[in-house]
Specification:
CATH architecture of the largest domain in chain A: 3-Layer(aba) Sandwich
Radius of gyration of chain A: 23 Å
Oligomer: homodimer
CATH superfamily of the largest domain in chain A: Zn peptidases
Shape of chain A: globular
Helix content of chain A: 25-40%
CATH topology of the largest domain in chain A: Aminopeptidase
Largest sheet of chain A: 9 strands, mixed
Distance between the termini of chain A: 10 Å
Strand content of chain A: 15-25%
CATH class of the largest domain in chain A: Alpha Beta
Largest interface: A-B, 97 and 97 residues
Chain lengths: 458, 458
């Protein structure tokens, strides 16, 4: 059985080789939504196969049909004991824009002061490689592992379309007892955290169209309806003055947390002051009469991810734009379904479309529901014991506001108990310019992998 | 005295040379707000000097201080009679974006089916060259002209900053009896129109800032205030549900038109059906309980010219943007001042700034007031007679919703009576991709120039 010094020692001894492997994967610009990067996604899948085969894995690369054919890596390695572990991760990354926000090239990993900077450095290539390097360390040391099934996909950042379609067909190959996922974060002060819930997500683009072309705002001001103004009115109508969601029916299925869940969730909350210091603004979002934990862990959101229309360059250009668009996403809590949520918002907006303008809804996806797990399950107890070895403070339970769309489906298909433990931190700035992952975080991911897999191999 | 056939005959005879001159000016990308195009503005001024000198003009190129040094062309040619005419035009153009909306290159003038396509083809290089070609035709024919003073500047599209500062110092050189401006449009069905009023204008950029960087919309949704959402709420608050302006104090100085003004203005109005056919959407903008003419000619506006923040690319990127901005402009009616209007809007927005977000106001200018002219003045009677020769329907009076910021100041400094007659049409699509000017419109501008200048030379 490895101890907590095992993974750090392995990392120190093999540091250059480990970084070489990790960086090779980071250099591939695997934006899974971009058809131009499809080749890089295929290269990433091939790279993972080449990495896994010498470790004794049987590896298949599966190309989903319908939509972009971004390959999925499926691997299996028989192990000791009766337990089968299904590990899920993704090699795709968010787009790197805005490019001018990056201090180092997004796809040229750069080690500065013990942190690796690159798109995907953490989310999720860093966390995946940390887990896999733990596996490699155990294998090289001749230590027992459980039967290990890996599914590493390339569309997590775009709702896992291909895997969502394929997973039900792969039921037998995905069957497992525990579903390990390394795509989440530690709690405040880097205390280890077990994710007991995730929010679902669905998104769409709203386009407001008016004049057939951009108009002169003097000649037409007061005559033509302004799509940017119409869009602003529509978006403003989604929330009440107190920050609560104003869409009829949207909140009907929201189930409040139990007292125990709320109590545990509050253990991992940070103060408004600490939040402001880290983020640069106070936590003033969401429904004003609810506390921070309830808002982020147990309530849904409707967020504007982007808004664009008309002139945006230097100086002024006095036009009435012919159209304006907003990118919106919703975070959902258990019992809300993505399709119902989208339908409610679509109806709300359509009912309020200003006269003379037309609305188009596009880019909507099937989305993913949220889930909550029972906090007293055996696998959570085992994980809590392991995490107490790594950090004497023990593990927090965390109901994460983020989404990993595929997890609910993999849980259903595999029959496994989800175990989401990750080592992200706010400072990693995932989805943003200058994403990074600390070498200490990487080693923590390795340590977790070696200890938890060894426990499950018994 | 030339007749109405004089200018068309001159055009037909010198067609290629006229187009060569006009196109040479159009090829210079004279975006007066863009520091990178300063050289092209200087080249345009030099080109005009070279064009005017052989016609007997004394020409000075004056470079304003403070702000971008976009040169101003000042020229004078002594003439017959006691009347001095000051002609005002501009060689600068609006930015050419969005570039992908153009069917031909914006700075490579292209003649298709009797129309010249290029940025500035009409506004204002086409109208200026039409006027100047009329001057040239008269001179070459040895016909008398009044004393002619020209001021052709390069910052009209950005509030004429340099000329605004210089004009009071040039009082003597600008002194005149009539201020002729060729920068406006004909009425419906191309009926000639005399502009009896213009709206003023002022603009600014509003930036809403929140988090220090783009945030993950799952991890932070419900916690962080969303700048795009805050911006939408702020912009929506500028108007009431009936389309009227909701900013306290903004409408206080609005002076309703007289019965006569309203009656004359209504002669040049188009029907809502014709508007929709031309523009692609119904005239549903502005205050709902007012008629079209009142809304566009005698009421102010607050328009969103552009709105930008967060992700706008293909697919989705689930961020809470760190900031979002809107470009706004206001059209003003007489007695409203740009500074008071901006102050009222700024206070309105500042008072409503959502918690956790901060507002920045930038790019604001000194703006220009609007004006209305008496419809029974001698110069208007003379112009009406001339225009009846060109078109038996005679001239309409038009209170234009657009702005030529410098006109009110030039009127004040020169002591001249403004006479704004132009030959633009909606189909010219000024300020938009595929701006164009018909050769027939160009010849009308020449005819107007030859006939009106001859009348004023008596």
């Amino acid at each position: 059985m490895p101890d907590t010094a095992f993974a750090p020692a392995y990392f120190d001894k093999n540091r250059q080789a480990i970084l070489d492997d990790w960086f090779a994967l980071l250099r591939l610009p695997t934006v899974g939504t971009d058809p131009k990067r499809l080749g890089d996604c295929a290269r990433a899948a091939a790279w993972l196969k080449k990495f896994l085969k010498p470790l004794g894995f049987a590896v298949d690369i599966i190309t989903p049909e319908g939509g972009l054919p971004v390959p999925i890596v499926l691997a299996e390695r028989p192990g000791a004991g009766a337990t089968t572990v299904l590990f899920y991760g993704h090699y795709d990354v968010q787009p790197e824009d805005p490019l001018d926000g990056w201090k180092t090239p997004p796809f040229e990993p750069t080690l500065i002061d013990g942190r690796v900077y690159a798109r995907g450095a953490q989310d999720d290539k860093g966390q995946v490689m940390g887990f896999l390097m733990g596996v490699k360390a155990l294998i090289e040391a001749g230590m027992p592992l459980p039967t290990l099934r890996l599914v590493i996909e390339g569309q997590e950042e775009s709702s896992s379309k291909g895997l969502t379609a394929l997973a039900p067909l792969l039921r037998q190959r995905l069957h497992a007892d525990v579903l390990m996922v390394s795509d989440t974060s530690s709690g405040p002060a880097s205390q280890p955290a077990i994710v007991a819930g995730l929010r679902g997500v669905t998104h769409f683009t709203l386009t407001v169209s008016g004049p057939g072309y951009d108009l002169h705002s003097g000649i037409h001001g007061g005559l033509a309806p302004n799509p940017a103004q119409g869009l602003a009115r529509l978006l403003a109508s989604l929330h009440n003055d107190d920050g609560s969601i104003a869409v009829s029916g949207f909140l009907d299925r929201v189930r409040p947390p139990s007292e125990e869940e709320l109590g545990l969730a509050r253990e991992s909350v940070i103060t408004p002051e600490a939040y402001e210091k880290e983020i640069g603004c106070p936590p003033a979002g969401g429904q004003q009469n609810l506390d921070m934990v309830t808002r982020v862990s147990f309530m849904p959101t409707i967020e504007i991810n982007g808004i664009h229309g008309g002139y945006g360059g230097p100086g002024s250009k006095t036009v009435i734009p012919s159209s304006a668009l907003a990118k919106l996403s919703m975070r959902l809590v258990p019992d809300q379904t993505p399709s119902e949520a989208f339908a409610a918002v679509k109806k709300h907006l359509t009912d309020r479309c200003p006269r003379g303008l037309t609305l188009t809804f596009s880019d909507s996806d099937s989305g993913a529901p949220g889930f909550r797990l029972p906090v007293h399950s055996p696998v959570f107890r085992l994980a809590a014991d392991v995490l107490r070895k790594i950090d004497p403070r023990g593990a927090l339970f965390h109901w994460d506001g983020a989404s990993i769309p595929i997890v609910a489906l993999l849980q259903h298909v595999s029959g496994a108990a989800p175990l989401l433990v990750g080592f992200g931190r706010e400072e990693d700035k995932i989805h943003c310019p200058n994403e990074s992952f600390g070498l200490d975080q990487f080693v923590s991911a390795m340590t977790w992998s070696t200890l938890m897999l060894s426990e499950l191999a018994v």
